[in-house]
Amino acid sequence: MTEHDESGPLTLWDAVSLVIGIVIGSTIYKTPGTICSNVSGPGAAIGLWVLCGGLSFVGALCYAELATTYSRSGGEYNYLTRAFGSWAGFLFGWSQLAIIQTGSIGALSYVFAEYAAEVLQAPKSSVVWFALGAVTVLTLLNMLGIHAGRHTQKALVLAKLLGLLLLIVAGLTSNSVVSMAATKPVTGPGWSLAMILVLYAYGGWNDAAFVTAEVRNRSRNIPLALLYGLGLIVIIYVLVNLAYLRALGFEGLRNSQRPAADALAAVLGEHAGRAMSLLVMISALGGLNGLILAVSRVHATVGADHALFSLLGRWSERTKTPVWSLLAQGVITVLMILGVGTESGRSMIDATLIRSSLRAIPWDRYYGGFDTLFAASAPIFWLFFLSTGIAYFVLRIIDRDRPRPFTAPWFPLCPLLFCGMCGFGLYSAANYAGPLLPLIAIPFSLGIPLFFVSGWLGRLSSAKPRSSET
């Protein structure tokens, strides 16, 4: 499929469902209470959701321009390669496989697993196995073909949206008499933590760029998918938070660790708690399936360009999917889940760090597999997000005469706001990761020698790496 080929198996609404499915994962069901504890009142909380939605929308405008100008699948991999050279794209692709997206997939699988264990009343030790099962089954399903993956995605998104609609209607029509006033001062670090949590809730919209080459009429549909998808998500998030506040009140939301279940229980009764847990499971599966489908295309693009990972660039003629990329992604994610979710896995990680003259990780600082994998992947994610914002400016200069089917408005305001958001995210994520930074640095720095090994293999086989565009 060439860069100018506008055909593809994914329609506009496939791409929109991918954006919604990835972004609305689990954070909206877990963090609103913590967010409210770090702001002064309900107006500030709702305002923060609108503000961060606007900042994400600005980022989506920049990505819409990049995705339609450089339309090969792979997203940031292509933009960084074009702007800074093949080493930058390789390091990004390697980090996606070794840290960022496999960590994100693993973290989201833990959300599904924790709620599955609760619904099924299974022991806590079963959580890791539910997480492994979700990753394995969805990886195999996506290996069966793009149509299996996209139909699964649309079904999960539909179920998720119907559940959210129930939550919104029940909350907003509640007759509960609750106070919207804050009766206690801010109990957390403040707005900076709240903002990071809200930005994380919006995270993932950029992953739609990973499947650019598979979107039909992409010069039109990629911008629309990003803008429609994020617009719908902002509306949903604001309405969900208003429903929480209507059902629980501001102080009640501050004190809730499971606001969705507590809100439904307050309006519909105690049995709603288990129904809400099922909704969170479906929502997590939707995000998980979307990530597995989209991110595997990045690894496949890296494999097509670099000899060391050439196997990842092979697509199945029968299923039209990057089966080796999906397999490698799944195996690494499984190892991560086992590493942070089992006692033997944590012991092996600590032993490796100690042999490298580094400190063991204080595991009690992080709350389970989700928190650990999120903290480990976030700093590198924000580093490359910021690098992509800088690449936007570079590409505007070196490719000034290149046709741009869509152009982000208000240049240079949009990319400057986006870079500012990413810089804030990087600083906050690095502070939060803390003791995990040495563990992150090991696989990240390994990407540098691997780049030179890949180049040597390419020259040895007389296979000159392909351009970042076809």
Radius of gyration: 22 Å
* CATH homologous superfamily caption: Amino acid/polyamine transporter I
Average pLDDT taken over every residue: 82
Sheet having the most strands: none
Gross geometry: globular
**Separation of termini?**
8 Å
Strand count? 0
Number of helices: 18
What's the architecture in CATH terms?
Up-down Bundle
Quick summary of this structure?
The chain is mostly helical. It has 18 helices and no strands.
Written overview of the protein:
There is one protein chain. The chain has helices spanning 12-23, 27-30, 32-37, 42-69, 76-84, 86-119, 127-143, 146-172, 191-202, 218-248, 250-254, 259-268, 272-305, 323-341, 343-355, 368-398, 413-433, 437-460. The protein has a single domain (12-459), classed as Amino acid/polyamine transporter I, CATH 1.20.1740.10. Helix content is 72%, strand content 0%.
Features:
disordered N terminus, globular, Amino acid/polyamine transporter I, single chain, mainly alpha, 470 residues
Topology:
Layout: H1 12-23, H2 27-30, H3 32-37, H4 42-69, H5 76-84, H6 86-119, H7 127-143, H8 146-172, H9 191-202, H10 218-248, H11 250-254, H12 259-268, H13 272-305, H14 323-341, H15 343-355, H16 368-398, H17 413-433, H18 437-460
